[in-house]
């Protein structure tokens, strides 16, 4: 709990009013203990989420407005209603809901774990965005097949190792197969260490010039499968992408000097992206406009 409280009070949307943030935390703890099911949380001006007790990423949105502020802020400023976004490792759909309910973009949402997929589709239904979202209950990899997945770890369910039990079998396809002739501008890849295999099945997608940005989680989880995540950095830079930090308040893109073991935004055609984020409409979250 100490780490959670530190995260809450240091979050960019909470720094100006830490007391209100801590009150949201306390209120959620009380409400979630009194409720037998998911509760509707007002997410952004045009969106809402079903949130249940124990959903780590979703409750982060309750406490902080946008759990992953820099990445989510980038998505909100980059996307337009005519765009296609692919949410790989969608979980309950926070990024999907931001992209489609708030911005109006079309989203392909990929979530392998059936119980989590059910919560994803519930959030799609809640926001009445079924006509602009395409949820798929599959995993992505370098080839078609089947993979074993854990099913008891909430936001960090992952492709199971040989030692792990209590698993389920999930069908696998490649990103290239899923997209066919569709042309996304943005990918979000959060697959708990399996990012290497997702990108191995995306050779055609990575060469498509319509793809301008990738938000990818690189936190060392690939080590469980023997993957060196620095090679992901080399693959992406080989396709013309470079790592950046983004500040939603100032709409500033700052190049990173090298590979970083953290969530990273990779950009191609930086001038185009910079123009997009500068000209985006303002968004209001927790009463703060950026």
- For the record, the count of structural domains works out to 2
Cα end-to-end separation? 29 Å
Q: Let me know the CATH homologous superfamily of the largest domain.
A: Vaccinia Virus protein VP39
What's the overall average pLDDT, rounded?
Answer: 95
Kindly provide the radius of gyration, computed on alpha-carbon positions and rounded to a whole number of angstroms: 18 Å
Helix content: 25-40%
Strand tally is 15
H/E element sequence: HHEEHHEHEHEEEEHEHHEHEEEHEE
What is the spatial order of strands in the main beta sheet? 5-4-3-9-10-13-11-12
Annotated CATH architecture of the largest domain:
3-Layer(aba) Sandwich
What does this protein structure show overall?
By secondary structure, this protein is an alpha/beta fold. The chain folds into two domains: 1-39 and 49-65, no CATH class; 68-280, Vaccinia Virus protein VP39 (Rossmann fold). It has helices at 2-10, 18-34, 56-64, 69-78, 94-103, 114-126, 175-179, 195-200, 203-207, 230-238, 270-279; strands at residues 39-44, 47-51, 84-88, 106-110, 133-136, 139-140, 145-150, 167-173, 186-189, 213-216, 242-247, 252-255, 264-267, 284-285, 288-289. It has an eight-stranded mixed beta sheet. A three-stranded mixed beta sheet has the order 6-8-7. Helix 2 crosses helix 3 (56-64). It is globular. The two termini are 29 Å apart.
